[in-house]
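A common beginner's mistake is to predict each chain separately and then try to dock the pieces by hand. The better habit, illustrated here, is to supply every component at once so that their relative placement is modeled jointly.
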Amino acid sequence: MNWKAETDPRVVIAWALEHYPGLLMTSAFNLNGVVLLELAAQAGYRGEVVFVDTGYHFPETLQTRDRLQERYPQMHFVTLKANLPEEAWGKERYRTDPDGCCAARKVAPLRAYLAQKNPPALLNARSRDQAKTRAHLGFLEPGERLRINPLAFWDRPALEAFAKAHNLPVNPLYWSGFFSIGCWPCTRAVRPGEEVRAGRWAGRGKTECGLWEGDQAL
Ligand code: SF4
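With all components supplied together, the output reads:
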């Protein structure tokens, strides 16, 4: 393949479907995720859309998932949830140990699911302009499990324009400045001049939930 930054993401997705027919899509239903779903639908994706419910999502996020599930009946939406006895585990661990909280509520359920399904590749919606830590993202990330990033080179104006042109059900919080939406205890609106993910774990020295470290992805 001879891909460039301006290559249509649908070309990348179609290639992925041809070469890795058992691939899975993971999503948190942020703007990127919603756009990727539509592009994947147009490219013929009929597989799973895996979401990890930490128990702390905004109601708007769960409603967005439900709206997307209705919009794409040809896909199979899977919601994973950690099995954590609150009394033994600590109800508000995100305050004192956000890494441990993410590890237990996000990473562990997805790891277990991927270990069971063993997909050959993961389709996901990250893009370079989301954060400095993602500035070198490419269409393909080799590893133990290949990660395919069709939106790597799209920026926020392009994503918004696509979402509007296709009347996509974007999480309503997005339009209030929640450009990257995770759990409510760890997400705030982005301020003028900040990067897209600045509202995640703000002031806690944490930038990722851990799903992108090693072999896992969301
Ligand atoms: S984002 Fe916050 S509440 Fe959600 S799993 Fe991570 S630490 Fe816990």
